[in-house]
């Protein structure tokens, strides 16, 4: 793990991103082939580790959403240090939720940046559905680790998921609403998806919901 950290210049290495690629390393080649050349949504970009490892799966472009200016600077430094071409990623100065609007966050929170009704700094929020439609994205992967707001993000991505059927890598360990709410919403959509929970650590911490079209199962 620390070898990967030194190789990429990541100061606070996270097992889910650097080692498991948010669950991608656990999936078959058929899933990897399915998402190749598509657009990836990286919700909660932080230091760029996710966008960096996602390059291994041949995305058209990774769209990384990060509202914190401090985290954005770290992200861009990671991309530059690892010589990722500028046309392979887009850093979006916004958070993701159910609809367009404005929320707040603590600018000192670092990796634990959480959007809420109050906080020292305001930021724009949008939904995956609105952003994907506005920019004509072909979404094949949605990764989300946004400190407990996963359900709100998922509600704002229903149209995209139904139409484009992307792979979902959703962190669900922050609270019960995020865990149970995302699972129940996906089940209610009747997507014909394979859904499973994977702990991307040595315990239930960093529990991730992985979902993808059942036709990709070998």
Say what the CATH topology is.
Rossmann fold
Q: Would you identify the CATH H-level superfamily? A: Vaccinia Virus protein VP39
Q: What's the β-strand tally?
A: 10
Looking at the structure, what is the overall shape?
globular
Largest β sheet strand count, sense and barrel closure: 7 strands, mixed
Low-confidence spans = none
SS content category: alpha/beta
Binned, the helix content reads: 25-40%
Total count of domains = 1
The radius of gyration is: 16 Å
In the CATH scheme, the class would be: Alpha Beta
Task: Write down the secondary-structure element order.
Answer: HHHEHEHEEEEHEHHEHEE
Q: What's the rounded overall pLDDT mean?
A: 87
Strand order of the largest sheet: 3-2-1-7-8-10-9
Spatial separation of the terminal alpha carbons: 30 Å
- Count of alpha and pi helical runs: 9
Strand content range = 15-25%
**Corresponding CATH architecture:** 3-Layer(aba) Sandwich
Write the layout of secondary structure elements.
Elements: H1 2-8, H2 15-19, H3 29-35, E1 39-43, H4 49-54, E2 61-65, H5 69-81, E3 89-92, E4 95-96, E5 101-105, E6 121-126, H6 128-135, E7 139-144, H7 150-155, H8 158-164, E8 167-171, H9 176-188, E9 193-199, E10 207-213
Parallel strand pairs: 1-2, 1-7, 2-3, 4-6, 7-8
Antiparallel strand pairs: 5-6, 8-10, 9-10
